[in-house]
Structure to design on (226 residues):
């Protein structure tokens, strides 16, 4: 099986770009951030602080997360409920950052993530895919862009969904998440040593997809020749 690991900071377009690229390649797309968002949202719904290790630990035994794929579209099923639409808020994003810093949560999700790569050709995105989850992935990419560019993209997406947000607020939240993700003790956000760094600052979605698809096809062709 071929594994493509795509890591990068919040708002870099990983999910959107990875999903489109996976569809073009005929691979399964796995958004690992959605798994952490699901746990974060569950904690919030239960009135639990996502940073509280003991409280979150007590919740995990009651959590069952499954991923379903419909036409290469990932759906997140939490305790039998499709929560795919409920985990895309700014609050869910920060809760995901908090729970992802807890070692027991990362352990809880580790096997689920790896099992998908064992059974299918995958494009898997997250923050520690190339460094921790799939260290032997054949292709590793670190997708990034300037904080301002990422915040503008995220702001536009949220406004289109009817959310009441400001660019300044989105930039503040994104900068805070960058710091939390890069400085956590467990599996901090960083490029794998053998990652290819792709900066999409100033790109349209189409330009980013085209660049990434061309890069991956080139690498796959070399793998076929090996």
């Amino acid at each position: 099986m071929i594994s493509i690991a795509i890591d990068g900071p919040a708002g870099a377009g990983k999910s959107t770009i990875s999903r489109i690229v996976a569809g073009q390649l005929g691979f399964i797309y796995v958004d690992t951030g959605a798994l952490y968002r699901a746990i974060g949202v569950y904690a919030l719904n239960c009135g639990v602080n996502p940073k509280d290790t003991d409280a979150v630990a007590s919740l995990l035994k009651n959590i069952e997360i499954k991923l379903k794929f419909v036409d290469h579209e990932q759906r997140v099923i939490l305790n039998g409920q499709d929560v795919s639409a409920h985990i895309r808020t700014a609050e869910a994003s920060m809760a995901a950052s908090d729970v992802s810093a807890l070692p027991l949560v990362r352990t809880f999700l580790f096997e689920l993530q790896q099992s998908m790569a064992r059974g299918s050709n995958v494009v898997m995105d997250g923050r520690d895919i190339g460094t921790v989850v799939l260290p032997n992935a054949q292709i590793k990419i670190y997708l990034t862009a300037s904080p301002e560019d990422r915040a503008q993209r995220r702001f536009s997406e949220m406004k289109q969904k009817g959310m009441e947000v400001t660019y300044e607020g989105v930039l503040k939240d994104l900068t805070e998440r960058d710091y939390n993700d890069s400085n956590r003790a467990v599996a901090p956000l960083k490029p794998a040593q053998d990652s290819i760094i792709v900066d999409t600052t100033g790109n349209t979605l189409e330009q980013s997809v085209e660049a990434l698809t061309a890069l991956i096809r080139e690498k796959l062709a070399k793998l076929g020749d090996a």
The chain has one domain: 3-217. The first strand starts at residue 3 and ends at 7. The mean pLDDT is 91. Residues 17 and 205 are 7 Å apart (CA to CA).
